[in-house]
């Protein structure tokens, strides 16, 4: 977490909104100026009626009490009108600014989030990140929507009323304003005191949201294992932690207003008592005395609201820290500058030279791995669970950064390539298929948004998905549900294959692409493999060896290293690891 004050960090971020902030601030100050002007006019009217003073008549050339009162009334009307205009103006400016900042901040945070490596997401809960993008951004918006104006107007009130007091009667004004330094110092101290309390509140709500998000995502498992009561207790525990954290912050923030009222009472008594003595001594007019008594009341209520505003401010600053901490998270995987040629010109020749990588640097998953993937051929990579097969795919896509060695695509180190260019050259069908909430058509076209319906249907046919899609209630317009939960695992996988086929990449990566399909579906997909892999480099990560029997080249991995290389027949004949896997899957004790 940054040690810089969150308000300074927010100011730096908001420099593009400087003009709008100044405009809104000016409107707030002018509104407060005209809001405090009527008491001055009331005092003038009192002096005019009681003491028959003609100070309004001389400069305006107006004679007689009725005419002078009429002028005062007209000026009051203008002031009320200007106050209303600037109240509308500052509300419009601050609210629009709040909406703009929250929109841009959420978009910037989300965009930055997309640029971060997968390791970042593996260390954090999705609910916690959602809390930042939604809850924290909204907390800042609420402060900008009303709290910022409140702070400015309270400050303007203190300055305007203080100035008026010293102008009217300096010998009494200092008594009325004597508590102000203590109030301001106390507010700053209180703000620092509350800061860690509200930081803890934001942390607790992030943990609560993380648990809720996790449970909603796993609702099927919860129901299947009859753990509803257990999960309710877990949510109750996290929610209670959030409540207790809030209670501590509320207990302290609630004490602010009573303390402020005591200090303000001292100033009020000073004006009431010593101001009255000044009137009796004829050193202060009745009208000015009325103005001061009225204005000290106008000073009272904004300062009592300062506690609520301060509470809102602290919540917003705690949220700001979390948002800007996310924005300040360094990007570990930086894009190169080279752009691959047209996909049709990408050969798809891949070379790994002495590649070492581990999710924990001290425990490498692959170590000094070297292999070659020939262009326009099907290369299969097999091995036991944990041997590094799927990790290899993530390294090719630069979802993780290798620790040493080189990965070359058509002779170019992939670290020199633009990330978008590199990933656009690859179509990936993961074993963990993710479908977005939307129609079947939208999910197949994801990433190929300009594809025609005819192209989408053709891709579905190649992936052996067309027939089951047509049998769905609304065909291609059927909504698949969140994560595709309305479809079977095999159906989801075939849609994912269709999505990759539609993209028509020069390199196709099938990461356990048939792991969730039945034998009949697998056989249907196998029929289309020859068509799918034509004129493209195909990398097939496989657990089911039957799906890669016809691969041009097979690498067998074990504990992050290549231990066997060859075709299916060659590897079976070696009587090594591959032979053991093949015999285990086919139920044979030896190869015939």
Verbal overview:
- It contains 21 helices and ten strands.
- It has 592 residues and is α/β, with parallel strands linked by helices.
- The protein has two domains: 6-327, ABC transporter type 1, transmembrane domain (ABC transporter transmembrane region fold, Up-down Bundle), CATH 1.20.1560; 348-425 and 508-514 and 538-592, Rossmann fold (3-Layer(aba) Sandwich), CATH 3.40.50.
- Helix 2 (18-51) runs antiparallel to helix 4 (65-115), helix 2 (18-51) packs parallel to helix 6 (126-168) and helix 20 (568-574) crosses helix 21.
- The two termini are 63 Å apart.
- 34% of the residues are buried.
Q: Spell out the CATH superfamily of the largest domain.
A: ABC transporter type 1, transmembrane domain
Question: What fraction of residues sit in β-strands?
Answer: 5-15%
CATH topology of the largest domain: ABC transporter transmembrane region fold
CATH class of the largest domain: Mainly Alpha
Largest sheet: 6 strands, mixed
Question: With helices defined by DSSP (H or I, 4 residues minimum), what is the helix count?
Answer: 21
Oligomer state equals: single chain
Q: State the end-to-end CA separation.
A: 63 Å
Shape-level CATH architecture of the largest domain: Up-down Bundle
Number of strands: 10
Chain-averaged pLDDT: 80
Structural class: alpha/beta
Domain count: the total is: 2
Question: How are the strands ordered across the major sheet?
Answer: 6-7-8-3-9-10
- Helical content, roughly? 55-70%
Poorly predicted spans: none
Radius of gyration computed on alpha carbons: 36 Å
Shape summary: elongated
């Amino acid at each position: 977490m940054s040690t810089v004050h969150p308000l300074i960090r927010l100011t730096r971020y908001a420099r593009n909104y400087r003009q709008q902030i100044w405009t809104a601030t000016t409107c707030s100050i002018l509104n407060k100026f005209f809001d405090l002007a009527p008491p001055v006019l009331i005092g003038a009217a009192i002096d005019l009626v009681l003491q028959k003073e003609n100070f309004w008549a001389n400069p305006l050339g107006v004679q007689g009490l009725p005419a002078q009162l009429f002028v005062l009334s007209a000026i009051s009307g203008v002031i009320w009108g200007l106050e209303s205009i600037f109240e509308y103006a500052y509300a419009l400016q601050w609210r629009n600014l709040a909406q703009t900042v929250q929109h841009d901040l959420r978009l910037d945070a989300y965009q930055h989030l997309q640029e971060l490596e997968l390791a970042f997401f593996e260390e954090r809960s999705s609910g916690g990140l959602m809390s930042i993008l939604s809850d924290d951004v909204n907390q800042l918006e609420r402060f900008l929507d009303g709290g910022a104006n409140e702070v400015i107007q309270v400050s303007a009130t203190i300055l305007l009323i203080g100035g008026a007091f010293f102008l009217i009667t300096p010998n009494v004004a200092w008594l009325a304003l004597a508590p102000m330094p203590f109030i301001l110092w106390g507010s700053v101290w209180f703000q620092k005191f509350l800061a860690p309390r509200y930081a803890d509140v934001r942390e607790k709500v992030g943990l609560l949201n993380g648990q809720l998000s996790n449970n909603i995502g796993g609702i099927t498992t919860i129901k299947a294992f009859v753990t509803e009561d257990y999960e309710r207790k877990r949510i109750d525990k996290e929610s209670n932690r959030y409540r207790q954290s809030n209670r501590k912050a509320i207990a302290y923030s609630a004490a602010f207003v009573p303390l402020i009222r005591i200090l303000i009472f001292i100033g009020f008594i000073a004006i009431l008592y010593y101001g009255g003595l000044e009137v009796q001594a004829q050193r202060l007019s009745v009208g000015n005395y009325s103005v001061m008594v009225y204005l000290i009341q106008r000073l009272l209520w904004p300062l009592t609201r300062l506690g609520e505003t301060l509470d809102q401010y602290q919540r917003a600053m705690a949220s700001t820290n979390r948002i800007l901490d996310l924005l300040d998270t360094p990007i570990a995987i930086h894009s190169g500058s080279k752009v691959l040629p047209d996909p049709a010109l990408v050969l798809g020749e891949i070379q790994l030279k002495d590649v070492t990588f581990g999710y924990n640097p001290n425990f490498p998953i692959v170590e000094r791995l070297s292999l070659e993937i020939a262009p326009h051929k099907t290369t299969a990579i097999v091995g036991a669970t944990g041997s590094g097969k799927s990790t290899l795919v993530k390294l090719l896509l630069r979802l993780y950064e290798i620790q040493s060695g080189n990965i070359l695509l058509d002779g170019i180190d992939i670290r020199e390539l633009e990330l978008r260019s590199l990933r656009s050259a690859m179509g990936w069908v993961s074993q963990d298929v993710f479908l977005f909430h939307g129609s079947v058509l939208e999910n197949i076209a994801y990433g190929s948004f300009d594809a025609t319906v005819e192209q989408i249907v053709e891709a579905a046919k190649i992936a052996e998905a067309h027939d089951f899609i047509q049998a769905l209630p609304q065909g291609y317009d059927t909504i698949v549900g969140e994560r595709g939960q309305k479809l079977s695992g095999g159906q989801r996988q075939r849609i994912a294959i269709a999505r990759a086929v539609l993209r028509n990449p020069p390199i196709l990566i099938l990461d356990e692409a048939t792991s969730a399909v039945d034998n009949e579906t697998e056989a249907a997909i196998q029929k289309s493999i020859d068509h799918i892999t034509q004129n493209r480099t195909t990398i097939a990560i496989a657990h089911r060896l039957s799906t890669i029997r016809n691969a041009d080249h097979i690498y067998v991995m074990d504990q992050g290293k290549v231990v066997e290389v060859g075709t299916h027949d060659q590897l079976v004949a070696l009587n090594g690891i591959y032979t053991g896997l093949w015999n285990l899957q086919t139920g044979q004790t030896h190869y015939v």
